[in-house]
UniProtKB/TrEMBL annotation:
Gene3D superfamilies to which the protein is assigned, alphabetical: Glycosidases
GO BP annotation list: carbohydrate metabolic process
Name of the featured protein: Myrosinase 1-like
Gene: LOC114242875
Domain of life: Eukaryota
Pfam families per the UniProt record, alphabetical: Glyco_hydro_1 (PF00232)
């Protein structure tokens, strides 16, 4: 379940943290790790609450033939509804920063 909502960037951070923990890489003192997501690729729930339709929502709904699989981001990783899982995962990875779509979170402690 840990990897269900992880993005490619988060996976890269996990790999870097793993290598750093094994001593294969060294980071300067004070170095801080973070991860970022892109709203359309992870949020889903395009027509929920007060969210406005994005350019990509409109494009993929009206021009499905331009997308190889005909898919869209209506569900994506469903991070709109599973944001607590994403924050938990970020904490488990000991990230200092996490940018969710446009919303930026910083952790004051561990």
């Amino acid at each position: 379940m840990l990897f269900i909502t992880m993005t490619a960037q988060t996976t890269l951070v996990l790999c870097l943290l793993t290598k750093a923990a094994w001593g294969e890489m060294k980071f300067p003192p004070g170095f801080r790790f973070g991860a970022a997501t892109a709203a359309y690729q992870i949020e889903g729930s395009w027509n929920v609450s007060d969210k406005a339709e994005s350019v990509w929502d409109r494009f993929t709904h009206e021009h499905k033939y331009y997308v190889d699989s005909g898919s869209n981001g209506d569900v994506a990783c469903d991070s709109y509804n599973r944001w607590k899982d994403d924050v938990r995962i970020a904490k488990e990875l000991n990230l200092h920063f996490y940018r969710y779509g446009w919303f930026f979170l910083t952790y004051a402690g561990k």
